[in-house]
Request: fold
Amino acid sequence: MAIRFDEKDRTITLHTKNTTYQMKVGRYGHLLHLYYGRRLAADMSYLLTFYDRGFSANPYESRNDKTYSMDAIPQEYSCYGNGDFRCSAFEAADNDGVSGCDLRYAGHEVKKGRYAIPGLPAAHCEERASDTLVVRLVDERLPLMVELYYGVMEETDVITRAVCIKNTGKKPVTLTKIASAMLDFTDCRYDLLHFHGRHGNERMMERVPLMTGRMSVGSRRGVSSHQHNPFVILADRDATEDCGDCYGMSLLYSGNFLCEAERDQYSQTRLVMGIGSENFAAVLSGGEVFWTPEAALTYAQGFAALSWNFHRLVRENICRGAYRDARRPVLINNWEATYFDFTGEKIIEIAREAASLGVEMLVLDDGWFGTRDGENSGLGDWYVNEKKLGMSLNELASRIRATGMKFGLWIEPEAVSVDSDLYRAHRDWVLEIPGKKPVMGRNQLVLDFSRPEVVDHVFAQIAGVIAGADVSYIKMDMNRSITDVCTAADGRQNEGEVMHRYVLGVYRFLEMLLERFPHLLIEGCCGGGGRFDMGMLYYTPQIWCSDNTDAIERTAIQYGTSFGYPPCTMGAHVSAVPNHQTGRTASLETRAAVAMAGTFGYELDLNRISEAEKELVRGQIRAYKKYYDLVHRGRYFRLSDPAKQREFAAFEFAAEDGSAALVTVVTLTTHCNAPVSYVRLKGLKADALYRNEQEGGLYAGAALMYAGFPIPVVMQEYASFQWHFTEEKQEN
Ligand code: DGJ
Reply:
């Protein structure tokens, strides 16, 4: 059992293969945090220090002993009201609006296997590979049972956390902040790595030293957002890809979130992550229960190992269904080829050419339904526009299947156009504040997915289309931030809960889709990567990484994304040049080399490229299939850091056993008489020999890793190199 309770010291210890997590019931019943890090077998209670801290208050029981202050002692799940003035994990108020509580230990339980969270995504794994700890906390005044859940995934070195709160009284209690996880450290030697961005430029890694005070990232856009990602790393100041203490925290949630990092007055550190608390208020009636989303935590030495832990977690324990393991088809999407301007015949023309080059699925993007000939109308009317297509969707799908390809379809179920039959029939189904003009985004409104009847209606329409045309794949988009958060439904109308119930509605929609169509491959999308989080990955094993398809900019976007998410989750396509988002022209080889570091596809009309380029496309698809296992199951290594290397971007996929590696290098700048750069490989066997498939050379693993491989100097902008190294068996 990976969870141990020591009755004498009142410590609870969680072990994974390489890590240890320890907490303790303090002398007055508070749950204190002792340690998280490299695996060890010791009572870490000695780390707690007690000093008279002047202005730091003391629990009532220690009124004569000023050395015991919640303001200074590391805790498991801090609450507002017990004298701890650092950022809290939990805040609640009684029916009269009086907030403040003091949660104390009331028992714990250890269970075999994992817990489930009703209506919310949660990591899953076989019973024997995971144990659950539940620690119960209660308050003297508020009738609350707060249960802290810890899922211990030994093999993956991941600890998941979630919190379940029950109102055990009769009067309502209002929860105003309920984090999913909190981590306290008794020191402050950390940098915060977070992933910020904007539309078309998501998940740019930024590394900043913690300041004294609080730093926070989060979203109040209703989706996890392009701007910030619910995944952060706390790392030693000198941590690198290969060494140093690194702590990752990722929230399995696709709505408003808040992550706070605080360096306190005593130079200690606290990290808190959960549902966004701005404007949040969940009212719990007597007997009612509230579950927070799950957070996943991991500890590793170096960023590469940390990413590997989360990559395995996502691939094996978060993604589900047929496409967790099944090979994803190489697809062609018509969006950048046609935008809204297409007919059924045009789509078939694109499909035929693509099929002849080896593409396996055609995805019909926005514009096939209602009166959707542009951005201003039709959303919400999920019936096929046969006039525009010139045929039924079933006929179109059948003719595409006749080319040997599968058929996929774009949807945006949460959205509605003002110019739509749905809006005209159900004005009260949108999120809107009475008396206020709604804020518009892409000239569309947001349906009130906090209402089950709205979700059911949209689901029935879309399910009918999927069944009618035997659709194999869905790209589920969402193209605006959410504003005007107010429901017309009876009961609680406040923003506080509606936004969370909206997210639950989105998850219910996806769950129904998977239940009804278990073989459907769903790709998440939110104007590209605006909802790229572990919550969505529970339903959609791949997400369109960014609307920016420029191969050069994609190297940075995919670099940042890779810290927390495996390449097999990143939708990446070859598009036309000059690139539609940046105007840049990169070679077809370079565009493909970058797109191959994800779920590969094309996003252009292949009829419009030359015969020589078509031959290249054939070769690219063959290569992608050949390297598929390396890309989708291999260890991913970032070999360059955009902040340091301006000359090139490099990354590697290595087989888990070190027997092969695929290295990709993209040159970012050209110079006259340029110096030679070397790229150092990782994850190989030092004493093995490797053949470079492309240029034929034989190299020692140690040489490739310790001295590196020279990047050819070429007089070409945005050149790329893909080298496949395979172990050459040596005769004794
Ligand atoms: C935004 C997506 O990210 C694009 O790929 C495309 O599907 C458009 N929406 C369609 O409106």
